[in-house]
Design brief:
Length: 381
């Protein structure tokens, strides 16, 4: 007959791991039947009276009823985990076992309560750590960025910059280059303690785009200059991009991509291999997308920079709005710098709060710059 064990029995003649057995609760006590293949005691079953049994709580989770008794076969210890068997034992046990059974039950409750407290503390600690890392990640990133020398940043940006320009049609001179150079000089002259030497390159492309790399390297596509109705609009984009550099937004994005371990390594030390890892990310810098907070910061600081340089800041706002309206957000510059009405409204409000001042025009003639790019005079951008 097949036996379904419902308990585990330990004894002197049994293996240290115990042997499965079938326990039946009866009026006099219990009958323990051992599995035939593991029965080393000779008898397949043994009968134990309640009067010979002592009880306690035990097991890995302290949720088992443990019975102890001694007999001709030596000391026995029986672990009952089946709830039905435990309830049957409690129901059939004589009155003199009520107190030991209650003590065992109380012991189980206390152990379980301690387990709940411990797991609660562990879960709470893990939750606090996770939340701390989540809310403190920006602070960790900032600490890591502050530990990276500008020279590292320049090497990283220059590597990606040269690699990108190698496959591009670069405009090396002419009215467009001169115009961008004048804009950059006026903006850079208003940056106090500027650690960067901005290098701005005009690239022939119909893409309406501009981007900045860590270290002060900026690319302006001719498509952007053709699209702009005034030099102030291009200067607005430049001010935005220069402030991505000044605020070290590119480095922040890289650090976030490298992950928390790298951040901790940078904060706590100066791993020699980090420069190589960052260099490998050079190509990815071209498609780097900034977060909303970084875009807002570049907008705000860019507007302030335009103001200090006495370049009409309204060009920055109108260019963003015009591109968003005409191209329904499909312009590449807007795909990497998503422009929302909220951002435009924020800039308008900030500009309105600034004291009025007289702006100074650029020395070049914008129609001639656009004509040099192939735009017919009188044609709409």
């Amino acid at each position: 007959m097949t036996m379904s064990p419902n308990a585990l029995c330990f004894g002197d003649e049994f293996p240290a791991t115990g042997v499965p057995c079938l326990v039946q609760i009866e009026a006099h006590g219990l009958t323990v039947t051992h599995a035939p293949e593991q029965d080393g005691a000779g008898n397949r079953s043994e009968s134990v009276c309640f009067s010979d049994v002592s009880v306690s709580a035990g097991g890995l989770d302290h949720d088992q009823l443990v019975l102890h008794w001694g007999g001709a076969a030596g000391q026995r210890t029986l672990y009952l985990k089946n709830p039905d068997v435990i309830r049957a034992f409690r129901r059939m046990a004589p009155d003199h076992m009520s107190r030991p059974l209650e003590q065992a039950a109380e012991q189980v409750r206390q152990v379980r309560q301690r387990h709940r407290v411990v797991w609660g503390l562990v879960s709470g600690t893990v939750l606090v750590l996770v939340l701390g890392l989540w809310f403190g990640s920006d602070l960790l990133v900032e600490l890591a960025v502050n530990r990276i020398p500008v020279e590292w940043e320049q090497k990283l940006g220059e590597s990606a910059y040269r690699e990108f320009l190698a496959g591009q049609d670069v405009t090396k001179d002419g009215p467009a280059v001169a115009a961008v150079k004048e804009m950059t000089q006026r903006l850079a002259s208003q940056v106090p303690n500027n650690p960067y030497r901005f290098e701005v390159t005009v690239v022939k492309s119909d893409v309406v785009n501009a981007f900045a790399l860590p270290g002060g390297y900026v690319v302006v596509f001719t498509g952007l200059m053709k699209k702009a109705e005034s030099p102030e609009e291009v200067a607005g984009v430049l001010a935005h991009e220069l402030n991505h550099v000044l605020q070290r937004h590119g480095l922040e994005r890289i650090i976030k991509q490298l992950g928390f371990v790298a951040v901790v390594s940078i904060v706590l030390g100066n791993p020699p291999g980090l420069g190589g890892v960052m260099k490998q990310l050079g190509v990815e810098l071209m498609t780097l997308k900034f977060g909303r907070a970084q875009e807002t910061e570049a907008d705000t600081t860019g507007l302030d920079l335009l103001y200090r340089a006495k370049i009409n800041p309204e060009g920055m706002i109108t260019f963003f709005e015009r591109l968003a309206e005409k191209d329904e957000g499909r312009v590449e510059w807007l795909s990497t710098h998503p422009m929302s009405s909220a951002r435009a409204d924020h800039l308008k409000a900030r500009l309105a709060a600034m004291p009025k001042q007289k702006t100074e025009p650029f020395s070049f003639e914008w129609p001639k710059v656009r004509e040099g790019l192939g735009v017919s005079l009188g044609s709409a951008p």
